[in-house]
Amino acid sequence: MLKTFLHAKIHRAAVTETDLDYEGSLGVDEDLMEAAGLKPFERVEVFNITNGERFATYLIVKERGSRTIGVYGAAARLAKAGDRLIVVAYAVLAEDEIEGFAPRVVILNEKNEIIRSG
């Protein structure tokens, strides 16, 4: 049997930019993606803490060290600069992969600096 588990989470990311005319996706600083174990074009779910909106999209890499969190395309209607987001990705695991599995969680401050990870 396969089961779905949280594999990565960026918690309390602050939106730095939005662009409604972009083709669509979520842009994340490469350092933050690596810290969370996320990959370019990986599907993520996004939960807007500020306004309660939720959406699914994919990741694109933004400049390393920029601390950019950009919401693009149609999703730009669901967030604005300064909103705080939770970004999550899931993994499908077989029974023999579950024991010892732990997600990577990255918690950010208001400047999108990592304050805790593990």
Which helices and strands, and how do they pair?
Blueprint: E1 2-14, E2 17-19, E3 25-29, H1 30-36, E4 43-48, E5 54-62, E6 69-72, E7 84-94, H2 95-98, E8 104-108, E9 114-117
Parallel strand pairs: 1-8, 2-6, 3-5
Antiparallel strand pairs: 1-7, 3-6, 4-5, 4-7, 8-9
Summarize this, please?
With 118 residues, the chain is mostly beta strands.
Which features would summarize this protein structure in a list?
Barwin-like endoglucanases, 9-stranded mixed β-sheet, 2 helices, 9 strands, 51% strand
Plain-language structure description:
The protein is mainly beta. The protein has one domain (2-117): Beta Barrel (Barwin-like endoglucanases), CATH 2.40.40. The chain is 9% helix and 51% strand. It contains 2 helices and 9 strands. The protein has helices at residues 30-36, 95-98; strands at 2-14, 17-19, 25-29, 43-48, 54-62, 69-72, 84-94, 104-108, 114-117. Strands 2-6-3-5-4-7-1-8-9 form a 9-stranded mixed beta sheet. The radius of gyration is 14 Å and the shape is globular. It starts with a strand and ends with a strand. The mean pLDDT is 97.
